[in-house]
Design brief:
The chain has seven helices and no strands. The protein has 146 residues and is mostly helical.
């Protein structure tokens, strides 16, 4: 984890810093622009750390099993438990940001299940190899969440 100075900033200064941070990073509509800024500001390890933290929260909100999250993201169960407690204690602000993404994923799962039912392996006129691959991919997404 990155170390910060032991000298605390004033609240007004800290608020101004977060406002600048949001203006630079949060207001990006272009994915390439966002990636350029993130790559320029954060090190490789910091980007991985942030991505894993967001993924842990996302998977916990999708009710994926602790063990599966640990296996999928190569994190410890203590890390997952820490974010589980964070979600339980702060249920309002940042969880709403994930709700839209989770809704889209659930809709996609329903569509995938529908196509897997109609074009299942063993149905006449269906390429069995592709059907089995699609079915296994759908089961993996349900198990690991990503």
């Amino acid at each position: 984890m990155a170390r910060i100075s032991q000298y605390k900033l004033k609240d007004k200064v800290l608020e101004k810093l977060f406002n600048i941070f949001f203006e630079i990073i949060g207001n990006q509509n272009d994915k390439n622009k966002f990636n350029e800024i993130i790559t320029g500001v954060f090190s490789y390890n910091e980007r991985i750390m942030f991505a894993k933290r967001i993924a842990i929260i996302y998977l916990l909100l999708k009710n994926i099993d602790f063990h599966n999250i640990c296996m999928a993201l190569n994190v410890s169960s203590a890390t997952v438990a820490k974010f589980k407690l964070l979600i339980e204690n702060k249920q309002d602000g940042f969880i709403r940001a994930f709700q839209n993404i989770i809704f889209r994923d659930k809709t996609q799962e329903i569509i995938d299940d529908f196509f897997n039912t109609i074009f299942a392996p063993g149905v006449y006129g269906v390429n069995w190899k592709i059907a089995w691959e699609r079915k296994r991919e759908s089961e993996r997404k349900k198990r690991f969440g990503i």
